[in-house]
C-alpha cells in the first residue's frame, strides 16, 4: 500500500564473516606490534549518524546500533554498548567470537585495567576518538602498565576492500527566514566569543556547528542534513571553510567565499600547522585526538573548552521557534492521520511493523514539506518494543497483535525537526501493562508541568520522570530527554534531561520529554513530546523560574490508563493537552479523521459517574446520570 523513501528495512547486520575478519585484523595487529585495537562506531567528525564508508564497527561485528565500541585483543574480542542496546547486540553479533559488555556495568577503561598487563600495546585510530576519550584511555592503559599507541593507518581500512566511497551530497543554503540570523552575524558572535576567551582562533570539527554557523545544509549522513566540513575561525584574518568543492554549486561557492576562504578537506592539517604559536580554542569532548596531536606538535597553545557554538545553537531564536511550532502542527496532522489509519485498519486486518512505519512516512510525505525522517522509525510490537532503539527489518518484522504497540519517529522539515513517541493499546492490555503505562505517563506529566529555577539542569529534573516507577522498584536505562536542533540533528547537545545533563536549561532550548519502561521479552512503553524551555508564568515565584511549553501535538492513548493512579492535577493536564490538540489539529483534518480525533481527545473522566452519597436515595438516580467534570476525581 505504501512505500518508504527515506528508510530501508533490509537487515544490514551480518556477523557471519566476523570470525574471518577478526583473524585478518589480528594478523595486521601483530604486524603493527599491537596486543589490542579499538574499533568505535565513529567517523572523524564524531557524528551520531556516520556515512556508510565509516561503518567499521558494523563491518567487523555485525552490530548496527548508533553507539558502541569493540576492543579486539590477540586472544579476546568484546563490544561495549549501553543499556539501549544490550538486547540488540546479543541478537546481532556472533557471540562465539565477540562478547557483549554492558558499558554501564563495566567501562572500557575498567576492562583495560583488568585485561592488559605491562608491555602490551593498545592501538587506536586518532581520528575516531575524541581527545577527552583518549585521555581516559591513556590513564587506564597506564594503570595497567601497558602502552597506548596511535596508528597512522586504520588496519580495518586495509582489509575492507569493498568499502563504500565517501559521500558527495550537494550542499544548499539554509534561508535566513528559517535560520533567523545571517551567517555573518553568527560569525561576528563567534569572533567575540574567541576574543573574550583571549584566544587567537577556534578550530571547528562538528559539521552540525559548521552547518549552523554558515547557514548551510547537506546530505552526507542519513537523516541529518549535514555537509561534512572543517573550519578555522581566527581573530585576525578571514575564516576558513574546508569542504569538498564538488558539493558546491557556483552560486553557493560565491556566497560562501564572501564569508570565508573556501578550501578542500585535504588542506585541513596544513591549516592546523599554520596555528603554531597561537592560542587555539578546541573542544576535547567533540574533536578528534588527531587534531589535538597536530596542534600540540605544531607548538600551538590549546585552550581546552566546549565550543561556544554548542550553546548558541541550542538556544533557538524567534524564527526557529516559530518554525518549529509550524513544523509540529504540520507533523501533528500527519501523525493524527496515521493514528486514525492504524485504528481503522487494525479493525479490518492484521498489520505489521513495516506496514505501519511505511504508512507514517507516507502521511508525512503528503505534507509536501518533508525533507527526510529524523531517524529510522522505531515501529515495535510486543517484545520488540522492549528494545528502546529497536529497528524493524524484514527479518524481525512482527504482526501488530493485541497488547502494546510503540512507534517512535520524527521528521526533518526545513522549518523544524520533530520527534514523537506514542504507545498504543491494541485490543486488551494486561493489568501489568496498564500500571506501567500510567506510571510512565505520570513521569511525562511531571516533566511537562515542572517549574524550576533559572540555572537548574536536566540532571535535577530527571528524577521527576522516574518517581512513579521508582515507587515500585522499576526504572528505564536511557535519559529522559535530549536536545533537538532546528532542521539539524534530532539529538543535540549540550542540553539534556538525564543524570548526565549538567548544562543549565535556558529559554529557547528544545528538548524531548520521553520517560519509558521496558520489560524484556514482553513489551515496552515510551511517551514522548518535544518541549520548549520558556520563562515561567508562575505568579508566586520569588526569583526567575522556567517551565516548558509542549510543542508536539498528537493524542496520547487513554485506553491503557489506570485512572486510579492519576491525581486530579494530572488528569487536568491531560485533558487540557487533548483539548489543545483537538483545537489546533482538528480543523486541518478531513471530517472522518476530525471526528475520530475529537473522540480520542475527549476528557479522560467524561464518562465516569459520580457515586451517590450514602442514604441519599432522592439524588441517587440523578447523580448516577450526571457526567463528572473533567479533572475531578
UniProtKB/TrEMBL annotation:
GO terms for molecular function: metal ion binding; metalloaminopeptidase activity. This is Aminopeptidase. Residues 21-152 form the Creatinase N-terminal domain. CDD domains: APP (cd01085). Belongs to the peptidase M24B family. InterPro entries: Creatin/AminoP/Spt16_N, Creatinase/aminopeptidase-like, Creatinase_N, Pept_M24, Pept_M24B, Peptidase_M24_C, X-Pro_aminopeptidase_P. Residues 623-633 have a biased composition (Basic residues).
Amino acid at each position: 500500500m505504501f512505500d518508504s523513501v527515506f528508510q530501508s528495512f533490509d537487515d544490514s547486520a551480518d556477523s557471519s564473516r566476523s570470525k574471518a575478519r577478526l583473524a585478518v585484523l589480528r594478523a595486521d595487529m601483530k604486524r603493527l606490534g599491537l596486543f589490542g585495537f579499538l574499533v568505535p562506531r565513529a567517523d572523524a567528525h564524531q557524528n551520531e549518524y556516520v556515512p556508510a564508508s565509516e561503518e567499521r564497527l558494523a563491518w567487523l561485528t555485525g552490530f548496527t546500533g548508533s553507539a558502541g565500541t569493540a576492543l579486539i585483543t590477540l586472544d579476546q574480542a568484546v563490544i561495549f554498548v549501553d543499556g539501549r542496546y544490550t538486547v540488540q547486540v546479543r541478537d546481532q553479533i556472533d557471540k562465539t567470537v565477540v562478547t557483549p559488555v554492558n558499558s554501564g556495568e563495566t567501562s572500557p577503561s575498567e576492562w583495560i585495567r583488568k585485561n592488559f598487563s605491562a608491555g602490551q600495546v593498545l592501538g587506536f585510530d586518532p581520528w575516531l576518538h575524541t581527545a577527552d576519550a583518549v585521555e581516559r584511555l591513556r590513564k587506564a592503559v597506564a594503570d595497567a602498565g601497558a602502552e597506548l599507541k596511535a596508528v597512522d593507518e586504520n588496519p580495518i581500512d586495509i582489509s575492507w576492500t569493498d568499502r563504500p566511497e565517501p559521500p558527495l551530497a550537494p550542499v544548499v543554503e539554509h534561508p535566513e527566514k528559517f535560520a533567523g540570523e545571517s551567517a555573518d552575524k553568527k560569525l561576528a558572535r563567534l569572533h567575540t566569543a574567541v576574543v573574550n576567551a583571549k584566544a587567537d582562533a577556534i578550530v571547528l570539527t562538528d559539521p552540525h556547528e559548521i552547518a549552523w554557523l554558515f547557514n548551510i545544509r547537506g546530505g552526507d549522513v542519513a537523516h541529518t542534513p549535514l555537509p561534512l566540513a572543517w573550519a578555522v575561525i581566527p581573530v585576525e584574518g578571514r575564516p576558513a571553510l574546508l569542504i569538498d568543492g564538488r558539493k558546491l554549486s557556483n552560486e553557493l561557492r560565491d556566497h560562501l567565499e564572501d564569508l570565508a576562504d573556501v578550501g578542500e578537506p585535504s588542506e585541513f592539517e596544513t591549516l592546523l600547522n599554520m596555528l603554531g604559536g597561537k592560542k587555539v580554542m578546541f573542544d576535547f569532548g567533540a574533536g578528534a585526538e588527531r587534531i589535538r596531536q597536530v596542534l600540540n606538535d605544531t607548538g600551538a597553545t590549546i585552550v581546552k573548552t566546549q565550543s561556544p557554538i554548542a550553546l548558541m545553537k541550542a538556544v533557538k531564536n524567534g524564527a526557529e521557534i516559530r518554525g518549529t511550532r509550524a513544523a509540529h502542527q504540520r507533523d501533528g496532522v500527519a501523525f493524527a492521520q496515521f493514528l486514525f489509519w492504524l485504528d481503522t485498519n487494525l479493525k479490518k486486518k492484521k498489520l505489521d511493523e513495516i506496514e505501519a512505519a511505511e504508512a507514517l512516512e507516507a502521511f508525512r510525505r503528503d505534507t509536501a514539506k518533508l525533507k527526510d525522517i529524523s531517524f529510522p522509525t522505531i515501529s515495535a510490537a510486543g517484545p520488540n518494543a522492549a528494545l528502546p532503539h529497536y529497528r524493524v527489518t524484514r527479518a524481525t518484522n512482527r504482526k501488530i497483535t493485541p497488547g502494546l504497540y510503540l512507534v517512535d519517529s520524527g521528521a526533518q522539515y526545513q522549518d523544524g525537526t520533530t520527534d514523537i513517541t506514542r504507545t498504543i493499546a491494541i485490543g486488551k492490555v494486561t493489568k501489568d501493562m496498564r500500571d506501567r503505562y500510567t506510571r510512565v505517563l505520570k513521569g511525562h506529566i511531571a516533566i511537562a508541568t515542572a517549574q524550576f529555577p533559572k540555572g537548574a539542569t536536566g540532571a535535577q529534573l530527571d528524577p521527576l520522570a522516574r518517581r512513579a516507577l521508582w515507587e515500585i522498584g522499576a526504572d528505564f536505562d536511557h535519559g529522559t530527554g535530549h536536545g533537538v536542533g532546528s532542521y539539524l540533528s534530532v539529538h543535540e547537545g549540550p542540553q539534556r534531561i538525564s543524570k548526565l545533563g549538567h548544562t543549565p536549561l535556558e529559554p529557547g532550548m528544545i528538548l524531548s520529554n520521553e520517560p519509558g519502561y521496558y520489560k524484556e521479552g514482553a513489551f515496552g512503553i515510551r511517551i514522548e513530546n518535544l518541549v520548549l524551555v520558556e520563562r515561567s508564568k508562575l505568579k508566586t515565584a520569588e526569583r526567575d523560574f522556567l517551565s516548558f511549553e509542549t510543542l508536539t501535538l498528537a493524542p496520547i492513548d487513554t485506553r491503557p490508563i489506570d485512572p486510579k493512579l492519576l491525581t486530579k492535577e494530572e488528569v487536568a493536564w491531560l485533558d487540557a493537552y487533548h483539548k489543545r490538540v483537538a483545537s489546533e489539529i482538528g480543523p486541518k483534518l478531513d471530517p472522518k479523521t476530525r471526528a475520530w480525533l475529537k473522540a480520542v481527545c475527549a476528557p479522560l473522566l467524561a464518562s465516569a459517574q459520580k457515586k451517590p452519597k450514602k442514604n441519599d436515595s432522592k439524588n441517587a438516580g440523578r447523580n448516577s446520570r450526571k457526567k463528572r467534570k473533567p479533572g475531578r476525581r
